[in-house]
Structures are given as C-alpha cells and as structure tokens.
Amino acid sequence: MSYLPGNELEVKEYQPRFRLLYLIMGITFGVFFIRLWYLQVLQGEELRAFSEQNSIKESKIPAPRGIIYDRNGEVLVENLPGFQVTLSPQYVGNLTETAEALGAALNMSPQQIEGIVQRSRRVNGPFRAVRIKENLSREEIFNIEILKQDYTGIDIKETVLRSYPLRENGAQFFGYVSEISKRQLPRLNERYADRNIRFQQGDIIGTTGLEEVYDLDLRGKDGISVSQVDAHGREAIGDPMGLLGSMGGVTPATPGQNIVLTIDKDIQEAAWQAFQSLGRIGGAVAMKANGEILAWVSAPSFDPNEFATGIAPDLWRKLINDPDKPLRNKPIQDHNAPGSTFKPLIALAALAEGAISPNTIVSCPGALRFGSRTYHDHLRGGHGNLNVMQAIERSSNVFFYKMGIALGIDPMFRYCDQLGIGRRTGIELPRERTGLMPSSAWKKANIGEEWQPGENLSVAIGQGFVLTNPLQLAVAYNAIGTEGKVVRPFVVKRVLGPDNKVLREFEPEVLRDLNSPEAQLKIKPEHYRAVKEGLRRVVNGEAGTARASKLKYIEMAGKTGTSQVMGFSADQIYASCEARPKHQRHHGWFIGYAPADKPEIAFGVLAEHACHGSSGAAPIAKAMVAAYVAKYRPEWLERDVHKEARERAPRPSEANADANTAPTQLPEGPIEGE
Amino acid sequence: MLGVGIQGAQLEERGFFRKLDWNFILPLLVLQVIGIINLYSATHGFGSDSTDRLFISQLFWLLKGWIVFLIVTLIDYQFFIRLAYVIYGLNLLALIAVIFVGKVALGAQRWLDLGFFAYQPSESMKLCIILVLARHLSQRSFADGMGIKDLLLPLGAVIGVPFLITAEQPDLGTAMMLLIIGSSILFFVKIRRSILVALAVLGIFSATGAWFFGLRDYQKHRIYTFLDPNQDPRGKGYNSIQSRIAVGSGQVFGKGFRKGTQSQLEFLPERHTDFIYSVLSEEFGFVGSMFTLSIFGLLFFTMMRIAQHARDKAGAIITVGVMAALFWHMLINVGMVIGLLPIVGVPLPLLSYGGSNMLTTMAALGMVSSVSYRKYLF
C-alpha cells in the first residue's frame, strides 16, 4: 500500500492524542475480559447449574375483588376460592402423551386439551401457562397430583372465582367479570395510563353493570410471588444460590374495596320471585323516595357465574340471539311508549297550565273526532262525564285527548321534560338510554316537519314519539308523590376500604325541585293532590284499573298502561291481545308509589308482551311493596287502611266528583264528541 | 490495470474493490454474521420451525445497510463536510418537528412517521454533530488545547441544542449519547486541563440540578435501581440478575447454538435487541464473548489507523467521531449485559435487531470507509 505522505502532516497535530485513545480502549477491553472471566470461568459452573436446574420465576397472586353487600350487609356478590389446572408448554415433554393423561384425569378429550394449548400458543406465545380447566373437584385435584409425578409442566393453581349467589336475579344490574383479551389490552392500558394501572392479558375486569362502573374500586392489586423453579417448572425450596436476595418471597395481593349498595336483598328476591312465578319478562325497579334503589330486576336473565370461568361459545350465542334479550338491562336500556302511564303527567300539566281545575268535569264519550280522524277510547261506550281524578282512575283516553288538544305539544314537553322523561336519570349504571320526549322544535330539527295538531292527542295518552323506561317513569311518579322532588336514583351507598373503613359515601340528591322558580312551572299543591288522588283510586277506587292489586294494609298509588308493540289501529283495540303471537302482544306497565299520601317507595314495572298493565305488571309492584312493608313497616301489617278510610269523612275532592254536575266545556279546540 | 506515473511518484490508479479498505470491512462482516446467527437463535425458540418475521426483516436491513455503505463510500466525505451545516440544520428542524407531530412510543415522542419508515431524528443527529464538529474543528488549530471561548460554539450550540431538545422528548438515553459522542471529539482534539477540571465540577453540579428539576420519575427510578437492584426486584433488577445468570452459565465454551436455556425460556427480556450479547455469551461461552469483543477491538484498531492516515483533519475527526459513537454504544450495552452498568435501552451496534439503527450505523461507517478510500489521491 502506498499513502500520500504530504497530507499526514495536517493530522500530525493529533498524533499524541491517539495514544490516549489506545489507552482507553485497552482499559475497557481489559475490564471486560476480567469481568467475563469472573462470570464465565470462575462463577461459570455455579451459574450453569443454577440456570439448568433453577430459574427465577414470577407468578401472579390474584387479588380478590371487593365484595358487594346489600343495604343491610347481606352478601350479593362475593368470591369463592377454587383450583385450576394449567400446563406450561415449555416444560411439557410430550404434549400428546400429557394431553392423554390429563384428559383421563379431567374427563376431557385429549384433542380438546391439545386444541386449547395450541390456540394459546398462537395467541399468547409459547411461554404463558395455559389454563386447561377451572373449578376442579377434589377428586380431580387428587388425580392430577398423582400425574404430576410422571409428567412435567402440569400445575395446580389457586384461583379466586367471582361468585353471584343470586344467580340470574339482577345479573344485568350487578354485571359480570371476564378476562382481558389481547385485543382489549392496549386500549385499556391507554385509558388507565394516567392512573398508573397496567393490565396484563388474562387479568379479570368488570365487563358490565356495577362490576364495570366500580371496577377501579372493586379490583385490588395483584400480588407477586418470586421463586426458583427447576428446568421442569417445579418450584425449588429456599434460595440455594443466594441470588434471589431480597427479591425472593411473596408480595401479597391487596384485596379490592367492598361496596355497600342501596339494594335490599329481600325486596330484590321478592321482585324476581314475582317475575318467575308469573312467567313474566321485562324490567322492574323499586326505589326509596330519596332515590335509593331497593330492587332492580330484568327478565329473562342469565347466570353471571357462567362468565367467571369464561363463557362457553354456544351459551353466549344463545344469549345474544334470544329474542327476549336476556343481556339487556331493561329498566334503563329498553324504551317503549309509556301508554296510559303518561296520563298523570299530562294531568299535572293541564292542571298547572289552567286547562282544567281539579273539579272540571269533562265529557268522555267512546270516541273523539279530531280533524279527519276518529280517536277511540279503550271502552267502546265511553266513560260519561269525568273529572281529572276519575279520568286517571278509569284511564279515559278521550279525557286526555282533550287535554292534549287544550295544552299543545310544547307545554306538555316542558312539564314532562322537567319530570325527567327523555332525560338520563343520572344513575351510575352504564349505557343508560335517554328515551325521548318530543317537542315541536325537536320534530323540526330531527324529522324536518312541522308538528301536527293530531299528534298532541297521541302524546297525551303516551303514544306517538314518546319513549321512556321504567326507571324514568318511577322517578317522575316519585316527583308527583313527593310533590315536586325529582331525585337522582343511585345504587351505591358506601365504598369500604380495608377494615371496612368508609372511604366514600354517597348522599341522596334532589336534581330538580319542580316548585322552584328555575323550573318555570306553575304547579300548585292542589294540583299534585288531585293527580295523587287519581293515582290512589287506580288501585283503591271502585273503578280503578289496578284494583285487583289492592293491599289491605297499605294504600298503593299508581297507574297502569299498555304499549303497542305492533301497529295501532282501531279494529285491533278490541281484538283479544292474548290471541296474538307472543312477540306481537302489548307491553303492560305499572308505575306508582306507596303509601299513596306520603310515598316511601316508588316503583316502575314493565311487563313485556303481558298484554295488560293491571294483570301483567301490577302484581310485581304489589310484591315489591309487600316485601318493603314486611321488612321496614311490620307494624302496618295489622292495619286495614280501607276500613279506616271509610270511617273517615268523605274526602272533599270525592264529594265534588260525586256531585255529578254538568260537564264544563273546554275553552278551545275543535272538539267533537261522538 | 493501467499504471500512470505523475510527478515521478510511484502512483497507480486502483480499481474500486482494491481501493476499499478490507481490513476495515472484514471485521464489520464478521460482526454482522455473528449478529445474524444470534438473532436466529433469539427469535427461534424450541419447537418453532417457521422462520421468524424479525429475522427476515433484519436480513433485508443488512442488505439496505450495505447499499448505503457503498454509496457513501463513493461520495467524497468533503462533500458532506461542505454541506455539514445544512444537513445539521435540517436535522435540527426534524428534531423540533417531532415535538409537534411525533409519534408517542413508550411515553416519549421520538419518531417521525414518514409513511414507509418511522424516522428517529435524534439517531441521525449523532452523525450530524460529528460532521459539523469535523468541519468546525478542522479549520482551526488547538496545539495548546481548547479554551473556554473555543468551546462555546461546539459544546454550547452544536451539541447543547440537540441535547436539550432530545432530553425534553424525553429521551435521556439518546440525549446523553449525543453529549458523550460530541464531547469525545472535543476531548480528542484536546481541551485544556484546567477546563477539563472545571467541566468535571460543572458536570457534577448540573447532574445534581437535573436530579432535582429535570429528570422524570422513571429516569430517577432507573438510577435508583442501578444503585440498589434489590429495590426493584420485579423490574430492572430482575433483568440484570437474569442476564448475569445467562452470561455466566455459558462457561468457557457455551451451551451451543439455540441451546441457551436462559434465552430460550422467557427469562431474558428484549433478547433480540438490547440483550443480544447475553444470548451470545450463554450459547458460545467465554470463547465466543471474547472473540466478539476482539473483533470489535480489531475494528476500532483499523479505524484508528484510518484516522491516523487520513487525508486531512476533517477525515480524522469524522473517523474518531464514528468510532466514539460505536465504542460508547458497545461499552454501555456490554457493560449492562455483564452487570457493570445500569440497564438502559442501548442496542449493540451491528449485532442488535433494528432497522433504523442498522442504517445510521452503516451510513456512519460508510463515511469512515470514504475517508479510507480517499487516502489515495487517485
């Protein structure tokens, strides 16, 4: 090789510096040589033995989730210890042989076991232990302990299984837990990044209902156990190499926080029993007048215990394809036309806006012509002359057609909107649907058409665009019963830390006071009283539509209703509902509260495809009220409120109504009786 | 081959392949072959017979790396020196752009998504700093060492600005690398002893300041863990212990190709990138580890020769700069694997998996090759 010598002169300035660089290099490689010599030659034999026979392995100790209690400390959701068998693919000598032996011990086919292992290898990689079976019986554990002598890679691990002792009862409400899938993992970790929570695949997470909403409270912190295992995955005792140091041992799991609900287990059971014994489907809620939910049922239902161990695909398919929608939380996720249960709200609006007074008598024939159409009553002959209380008691359609005409849509909207129709109630449960209370502005914006006067008649009897759910209606009726308090329904009373110390406590909350100036409504106390009297008579009056559900010891107040599932036409009204195929039958409603004068408990019941509110839904409400009285007002059980009422002087409003005065003509509207 | 004499000196026009410095290229090739063998082992566990995607893509990165290497070799490095400030300026803009439009990975913004390629401007900044320093320093003479005024521009601006931006991303690892590489060049060119002492004191102070004001929690945590690995037994401490076991259990001759239990089981994290050297040590033992280190030594030795015989100062500084970058990466990575240094995410050049790193390394080495190529006038 030949260099061009002249140019080296320029670099010559640096020549002494290169000696320094050689020195630094020399020192570095010298240090590395010594260190590698120390590790690989001097310590090599020990470390080789360690790596071949012992390795440090971490395993997760799952944290038990918090327990969910009812308002009196009865357990609603808990954890059960269980055992599962796992297979660690990297330690398995011969998969086919191991699968055969395991299959015999677990009563599974070897192909099934191999399939599980192969699927897990594809999804989770070869190093994750594969769960073969959960919830082992004592006998299975015994069999596997014997197998472990001859086959490597098999492990029995303790697990904590979520357990729902109420089973189907309230399953949509409590929700269920499931394992985090690989697909969910990045999204979850991103969502919780700022909370310093990192999930791992296979962690348990609340998927719906309360388990989902309170997941952060209910989930504890998993513990870790660091131990040495040999090349076959068997745990070694102690720390023979002294390598573990303070790493060894166990970081215990921190259990999740317990939660106390407003639910009462007995009322919950009574509600579910009522659904079951009547063979009803639908949804029901009961809440205290301050918003504390006492019972929450959605039927049909599913067993959330099935989800705890990973639900079988065919069971899942069955659930999502069931036309009765067992996975849906019906009290807030189904919405339907409220039908006649809407009438008390319209009555309140009509009274407050001065369309009628509590004593106004309105002529209610069997049908009403409005524009080019005839609007029918459910009673062909009509009800004769009625005041507002009688109209509610008998559920006269024509009375409320006239109210709808007199009020118009926007005043109806204002009252119903303030009462909470078409608004979320604010309950903590996930995926609550809003429902709909139409207004002329809404129709213009969403359908692009002007409001038609005929639609006022439909809205006034809870048909047309109106959509609502049992919870919204129960809150609205509760507001009428308590004379103006729209409360926020809630289900969690307290979150408890370790040693049951109260970490958070939730107080009842009045969302809107209808009597306050902000509400801009003109409801006076006598208006509430008139509507409440009507609701009392529905159950307790001679002609009340729900008189069959009368209780001796308490006056319930409420209103029945039906909601047409299929198209509504005059000829179908009189056709027998029961004669139709099940999924074309009407839904029955019963909404109300008790006691009638000073409500303590409000309820909303939707009995889907039950044809009538009176026979379909009211008995469920009755069962919930009876359970409430039996538990919280046992002294009332001896009373006979109806006898007491008869002994008292006739009520002033009743006296007026009975004085069968001539009907007052309503001020406006092209009303034509038939 | 045609021999032509000029000015009486015995000079020959050489062909491209004869002009290439094979003393330099051979160690490179050997290191990359070792890397490929190890990557195959690290990505192909027991019982996996299909060829791993990572392995295939690394082969393609190698090919692209060599194309870049040869192209850069053919370009006169003076061309890069002339354009040094422009390239540096553009790279600085890209670094700033990352702050606004960069992709967030592992909690830090480091990448620009160029559609076909996730580009990390802080990586190529290493090369830009080397070029600008080569241009700046080669025009001056510091026989007595650099004084404060001489250091102001190179240390304060050329190294300081990208250092601060990168540290803000926050990517303290790469930022420290920029500082170390730049400082190594300045140290090589010679700094006055009094200044070195002053800088050492300043360094201690600013490190203290950074501890209290500049560092993120996870960065502090990393330093804590190094000082006391048992504080974080499940995190970095675990990796450190597992890596030590892997290296040591290799003994003198190793466990054999694809037979390293530590690497093949799940005990070693990131075994195809940051911990590739522990796979090598476990499977090929003391002999394999020392052999690989010797090849690195040989590579540095040839680079030093290239610098000593460079056509001009700029060529020498480029070569020393690239060597410093390679050397520090190797030192930190190997030091971490054998338990001498804390666990930081620094790859082992030429051996670790990673396309972006392979391309910048090969471009930098191409520049050294270009310096070597042009020690011949013709």
Explain what you see:
The complex is a heterodimer of chains A (674) and B (378). By secondary structure, chain A is of the alpha+beta class. Chain A contains 27 helices and 24 strands. In chain A, 38% of the residues lie in helices and 19% in strands. In chain A, strands 2, 3, 4, 5, 10, 18 and 19 form a seven-stranded mixed beta sheet that branches. Chain A has a five-stranded antiparallel beta sheet with strand order 12-11-23-22-21, with helices on both faces. In chain A, α4 packs across α5 and α15 crosses α18. Chain B is mainly α and 378 residues long. Chain B has one domain. In chain B, α8 crosses α14. The N terminus of chain B is likely disordered. At the A-B interface, α1, α2, α3 and β1 of A face α11, α13 and α14 of B.
Can you give keywords for this protein?
heterodimer; A: 674 residues; alpha+beta; Beta-lactamase; 2 domains; 7-stranded mixed beta sheet; elongated; disordered N terminus; disordered C terminus; B: 378 residues; mainly alpha; 3-stranded antiparallel beta sheet; 15 helices; 3 strands; 68% helix
Measured as a percent range, the helix fraction of chain B is 55-70%
CATH superfamily of the largest domain in chain A: DD-peptidase/beta-lactamase superfamily
With strands numbered from the N-terminus, the spatial order across the biggest sheet of chain B is 1-2-3
Gross morphology of chain B:
globular
Number of domains of chain A: 2
Q: How many strands, which pairing sense, and closed or not: the largest β-sheet of chain A? A: 7 strands, mixed
Summarize the structure.
Chain A is α+β, with helices and mostly antiparallel strands. Chain A is built from 27 helices and 24 strands.
